[in-house]
Amino acid sequence: MSRVLAVVTNQATYGRSTHRTGLWIGELVHFHAGILQAGFEADIVSPSGGRVPLDPRSVKLADRTTRKYMADRAFMSGLDDSARAADMDPNRYAGIFYTGGHGVMWDFPEDSALQATARQIYENGGVVSSVCHGACGLLNIRLSDGSLLVDGRKVTGFSTNEERVSFVKNRVPFLLEDELRQRGAHYVRGKLPMAPCAVTDGRLVTGQNPYSTKAVTKKIIEVLQRL
Predict the structure, then answer these.
(1) pLDDT tens digit string along 195-223?
(2) Which of these, 12, 23, 157, 158, has the minimum number of CB atoms within 10 Å of its CB?
(3) CA–CA separation, 82 vs 194, rounded Å?
(4) pLDDT 10s digits, 15-53
(5) How many domains does the chain have?
(6) Residue 144 is part of a domain; what is its CATH number?
């Protein structure tokens, strides 16, 4: 299998507030570019299907590669009408990658279809991975034996300090770092906020923040190539 799923959010605001959020577009772009260059294909899915909102800050901070993708009508049309995760066959995929942006904090953690898809991919011998807030999608994945996927595993994701320096700590519904630890994960973070940090624990691969996307994608590819 040479295909992976890239999961993106449908949530456009911080809960019911008017503060806008959504997909951190650079995380999807740099994962997508890296995976394609390595000879894999990526299918983009979301919890509800349909439109994928972009976090305005991620658009403002877009680098050259991200701007090039955003100018690609074919690529962006996939974000206007994304496939629904529940409609995908997990047996077709060698891996699943949860992207971030604060929107995922509302629609990733309790999505049973996403959990089932990730569980099947993992138990088929595939890779489960995330970057930044995408680790919210890992919080409640239970394997067939009832154990939590992250329990006892090295995992990273957006840190509490990074929520603070992003000035959104009071807007989020929970602190990802705390939630990972509460589920038994051995949470790992870099020495400096917003610096690249990615960790591999078997077939579980995670990156801490948007600036970790290239590093975590490299690790994902290394694991995929060993399967």
Answers:
(1) 999 999 999 999 999 999 999 999 999 99
(2) 12
(3) 29
(4) 999 999 999 999 999 999 999 999 999 999 999 999 999
(5) 1
(6) 3.40.50.880
